[in-house]
Amino acid sequence: MNDRLQWARDGRDWPNRESSRFIRAGGLEWHVQLMGSGPAVLLIHGTGASTHSWRDLAPILAPHFTVVAPDLPGHGFTQQPAAGGLSLPGMARALSELLRVLDVAPRLAIGHSAGAAIAIRMVLDRLITPEGLVSLNGALLPFSGFARHVFSPLAKLLVSIPFVPRIFAEAASHGRAIARQISRTGSTIDGQGLELYARILSNPTHVSSTLGMMANWDLDTLVRELPKLKIPLLLITGSRDLTIPPEQAFEVRDVVPSAKVENLRGLGHLAHEEQPEKVAELILNFDRAVEAAAKTGPGLASEKL
Description:
By secondary structure, the protein is of the alpha/beta class. The protein has a single domain, classed as Alpha/Beta hydrolase fold, catalytic domain (Rossmann fold, 3-Layer(aba) Sandwich). 45% of the residues lie in helices and 15% in strands. The chain has helices at residues 7-10, 57-61, 88-102, 114-124, 145-160, 164-172, 175-183, 191-201, 204-215, 220-225, 247-255, 271-274, 276-296, 301-304, and strands at residues 20-25, 28-36, 40-44, 66-70, 108-112, 132-136, 233-238, 259-264. The chain has an eight-stranded mixed sheet with strand order 1-2-4-3-5-6-7-8, with helices on both faces. Helix 11 (247-255) links the parallel strand 7 and strand 8. The longest helix has 21 residues, at 276-296.
């Protein structure tokens, strides 16, 4: 599918546009935003989103970190990958190639929703070695019951039908449809955010990649390996998240000894877009705690965090 978002047209007023770069890595042309100075922090957005979702959080972090925020393969302005590139391991490998070309070793990896699973997969596969991980309403556990038997097979079916992405994209071009979908996440975001979601989700290539990511997503292996995660993990969850039940964060905490949960009252799945200042405060506090724990030795890390 060749009808990608066009930077000259669709990126004309892109948030933090002056920080955008186009980088060739791992056989893909990536759109990545780079800003700030200091130790690197990697921001990984979730399924169906793009760098626009960090539009307010990234500038708050930039005085403290070198912020690296890419569009995932097939999302936003990054090229769509070949078959298999939209799986969890495929995304993890592709991102590691981008970081290699950029010569970046993140001190923190921060992922929203499915982006949190990608960050953890990268750590478990030793593709990155950050000092800490942050999950923002992380999609880390598989669907259960009826949804488990319907969600992935349905996504596989939809992505296999050539005209389906165009139908979804046409529906998303209507602002009211996007507003309804965002409200179903439990979040309330500003008009700019709604317009940007409508812009990317009205693009068939972006929609095709979103469906492809859903169709290829398998968290069973990740769940089995979660207890192997040794570095500090901060699980930030919104109490009103209607996409990922907040209880999942506590389930993950129970199997990851290094994990801590922070629950944000009144916020939904897009908490980092609703209150970026509050999320940034939690991230900065976590970074300071990780740094202090590293100085006192791994044995005291979980106690201090």
